[in-house]
Design brief:
seven-stranded mixed β-sheet; alpha+beta; 39% strand; six-stranded antiparallel β-sheet; Tumour Suppressor Smad4; 292 residues; Rossmann fold
Length: 292
């Protein structure tokens, strides 16, 4: 079978000697296979004087057949927001702590690439969220998220008050530290620490998890990923809150702001080695049934 991936885009986490070493070994491996290697600006920063094509993230997405992300899940989250719309398959090399999304270890890169370039791999599609903030009828912020969109307080010791609608139907009024709206992928991230359920990545669902709600009857709720979620921030001119996408993109919210959250039209094409087992990954990462 001919290798469908001829132009490989490399994306790396900023900083760290282990990232630089892995990227250089990976680039040399790809060179040895006669493949074209493209670097985004984050990867190029690890090469002393890169004699390769260096592109912006958006340009890289439009010019490669496969993107390889070297770093941890945070690096993958950052890359996913810019790669999903271009329909580029993405492979993660894990240099982080958990590695739910980046599941190839550096020491096995060569063997896994042999398999992938021979067509022996698995692919699954991960949905993203698109969030927009409306203020006085005008959109003032927009961003995507692979894990979650979080509406949360600005002040350390003060709750916020928000109303939530699902497809135009009123759900509840919430006094809490905030609200997490998560994809199935993000259900093992912040939503999990907030007491939310773990969702199979294949589910077409979203989960809403209140953060430290003032009313004990407020519990996580799972809805269809076709739902339009709308959230309104209450308060006065002293009210300050934030919206955060994947823990990386932040925007200040004011009283009266309306946040709309829906599934993004494009999904992330995530590449895994053959015989990838999501439940095995969870069992290892979450240390289920680990013997003392």
């Amino acid at each position: 079978m001919n290798n469908p991936f001829q132009r490989i885009g490399l994306i790396g986490k900023y900083g760290g000697p282990s990232v630089a070493d892995t990227l250089k070994r990976l680039a040399a491996d790809l060179d040895g296979r006669g493949l074209e290697v493209l670097l985004d600006e984050s990867a190029a920063a690890h090469f002393e004087s890169p004699d390769r094509v260096v592109l912006t993230r958006e340009a890289l997405a439009g010019n490669c057949d496969l993107a390889i992300v070297v770093g941890g899940d945070g690096t993958m989250l950052n890359a996913a927001r810019s790669l999903a719309s271009a329909d580029v398959p993405v492979l993660g090399v894990n240099l982080g702590r958990l590695g739910f999304l980046t599941d190839v270890s550096p020491h096995e890169m060569h063997e896994r690439l042999d398999e992938i370039f021979a067509g022996r791999y698995e692919e699954d599609c991960r949905s993203l969220l698109h969030a927009s903030v409306l203020r006085d009828g005008r959109t003032v912020s927009e961003s995507d998220a692979l894990n979650d969109v979080v509406i949360h307080k600005w002040d350390i010791a003060r709750m916020i008050e928000i109303d939530t609608w699902i497809d135009g139907r009123f759900l509840n009024a919430l006094r809490a530290d905030g609200l997490i709206v998560s994809t199935p992928t993000g259900s093992t991230a912040y939503a999990l620490s907030g007491g939310g359920p773990i969702l199979d990545p294949a589910l077409k669902a979203l989960v809403l998890v209140p953060i430290c709600p003032h009313t004990l009857s407020n519990r996580p709720i799972v809805v269809s990923d076709q739902a339009m979620i709308e959230i309104v921030v209450h308060g006065d001119e002293s009210t300050k809150a934030q919206i955060t996408c994947d823990g990386q993109v932040n925007f200040e919210l004011l009283a009266g702001d309306r946040i709309s959250i829906k599934r993004k039209d494009h999904a992330l094409r995530l590449i895994h080695p053959q015989k990838h087992d999501h439940f095995d990954v969870m069992r290892k990462k979450l240390r289920w049934a680990e013997q003392p």
